[in-house]
Design goal:
RdgC, 3 domains, alpha+beta, Recombination-associated protein RdgC, 12-stranded antiparallel β-sheet, 12 strands
Length: 369
Amino acid sequence: MPFDQGNITFRICSLPEPMPTDSIERFAEYAARALDEIKDEPQWGWVSPRHLLDSNISDETIRAAGFYHLCLRQAERKIPSSLLTAECRMVELARMAEKGHERLGRKERKTIKEEVQQRLLPKMPPQISGMYFAIDCTENLLYTSATSANQLDMFLGFFKKSIGFEPLPYTPDVVAAERFELDPASIPALGISPDPDRADERPNGSLGENFLTWLWFFQEERGGVLPPTKIGEFSMMIEGPLVLVSDEDGAGAVESVIRKGLPTQSAEAKAALMVGKKLKRAKLILARNPGEEWAVTVDSDFVFRGLKMPEGEAMDPESIFEERMTNLFIFQTIFFNLYKRFLEEMTDSQKAREYQENAKKWVANRRAL
C-alpha cells in the first residue's frame, strides 16, 4: 500500500547520509523494465507510487512536499502448480503409451518437467507486486512497507545498488545505540513476576518485549495520560489482541495469544505475566485532540502494522500526502519519546528497581474482568 492512502504497515530506517542531489537520476537508471522483457527470472525496478506500471521516474512523479515516494516493483512469470502438474502428466502418459511402459524414471520425468516449463513460461502473464517507501529528507528517515526479512533484504540491497548507501533498519537495539547513544547491552531484562517460586529465574525477553511490557505498565499506572510534549498532550491505551511470549530455559518461544473479551484485563493476561511472559505484540492507540487518533499494532522488533491516522482536511494529492507524512512523523516522535524514557529509566539502577517492584505489584493486583 502506498503511503498516500489507507492504513499502512511499515518499518522505519535511518539514512547514514543525506540523499544525493542526483537521486532522481539514480532511481531512473534502475527503473522497472517493460513487462514484455520479463523472461524466466524475476525482475526488480523502481516505479512511481501512482501504479505498478508507471516506470516514469521524474521529479513530478516521485517527489511530493519535499519527500521522495517510490515503489520497488517485482515482476516475474509463474506457472500455476496445478497447470504445471497437469501438463507434465499429459506428456508422461503419452510417453508411457508410446514406449509401452507402466512408469517413467525420475530422470525422464525431470526432463519432461523442464521441457514443459520452457514451453509454458513465455505464455504466462507477468505477476507484479511492490514494496513502497517514503523518505523524509529533513529527518533522514525512510519508511518502507518491506517488513519481512526477505523483503527487507531485497529492498535494502536494491536501494544501495541505486543510491550508493544502505538504510539502517530501526530495531530496538539500533534505536538505542544510534538514536539515543545508549548501549543496548546495558538495558536489563527485569523480571516482573510476583510469584516467589520464580524469584531466582533468569529474566527473559528481548529489549523490544521488555519495552512493550513496560509501556503497558506505564500507561495503566498513569491512567493513559502521557507526559506533556512540545507537540501537544496525548493519551494512550494498549489493546488486544495481545501476544505474550517467554523463552523457557532456552527451549524456544512459548506464546500466549489473547483475543476475546478485554484481553488486557483478562485472567489469561495475568496468568501469562505471572509466569514471566513479556509482551511481543499489541495494539497501541494514541489520541491528542478530539478526532485525532493513531491506532497501530506494534511488534517488539518495531514493525508497525495497519497504522490508521487521523482524518485529514487537505483536498489536493500533494497536500494529502504531506498531511499524512506529518501525522506519521507525529506518531513516530511520540513512540520513540516513550522508548527513550524507558531506556533512561532502565539505565538508572534506582528507577529500574522501582519499576521492578511496582510492576510486580501491578501484576499481582490485576483483576480479571
